[in-house]
Write a structure and sequence with these properties.
- The protein contains seven helices and no strands.
- The chain is mainly α and 183 residues long.
- It has one domain (26-92, 104-172).
- It starts with a helix and ends in an 11-residue tail after the last helix.
């Protein structure tokens, strides 16, 4: 029953995404986003840019985001994917642009997990750029379905895991000191 719902969801999303494949602008955007999401590169760049804005808060946010993205990568790509093996979607015959073919399990999407973990941490105490972080995270996540590396349910699960890990990161390493401890 649950697997039927998952497959139905994947099939519906695939029906929405498939007509966009082969369109030069869509391919350029999504293949580029997918490449920038490899190994959390985009989130490291955003963290460096935040650190360059100066101030202790921005430097702390940047360091926390880079450290958390590294920890997230190990937890998801070595731990979670090993526990939940899933075949990737069928290989597309012709990729219009280069794309790295991962060898790990399809579930959950590591790109989506890193994207939403990174966005959650970088958006903390940065209300002006928070929409940018989350918008970029959404494009990276959707790109994985567009380029055919993940099922939509892999991406949805990755988004959820990334949001949870981001919240845990904010709790473990808050940007501002917590209030006085009560005894």
């Amino acid at each position: 029953m649950v697997l039927d719902l998952v497959h139905s969801f994947d099939k519906r999303v695939e029906g929405v995404v498939a007509p966009w494949r082969g369109r030069p602008l869509a391919d350029r955007v999504f293949y580029t986003a997918s490449a920038l999401g490899d190994f959390g590169l985009l989130w490291v760049v955003f963290a460096l840019l935040r650190a360059l804005r100066g101030g202790r808060l921005n430097e702390r946010a940047a360091l926390r985001a880079v450290a958390a993205t590294g920890i997230e990568s190990v937890l998801v790509n070595v731990g979670l994917k090993a526990l939940l093996p899933r075949a990737r979607p069928e290989e597309q015959p012709d990729h219009p642009l280069p794309v790295r073919q991962p060898l790990s399990s399809s579930f959950p999407s590591g790109h989506a997990t890193a994207a939403f973990c990174g966005a959650t941490l970088l958006a903390d105490a940065d209300p002006l750029l928070a929409p940018l972080y989350y918008s970029c995270a959404a494009v990276v996540a959707v790109s994985r379905v567009h380029v055919g590396m993940h099922h939509a349910s892999d991406v949805a699960a990755g988004i959820g895991v990334g949001l949870v890990l981001g919240r845990i990161g904010k709790w473990i390493a808050p940007l501002q000191p917590r209030g006085p401890r009560r005894r």
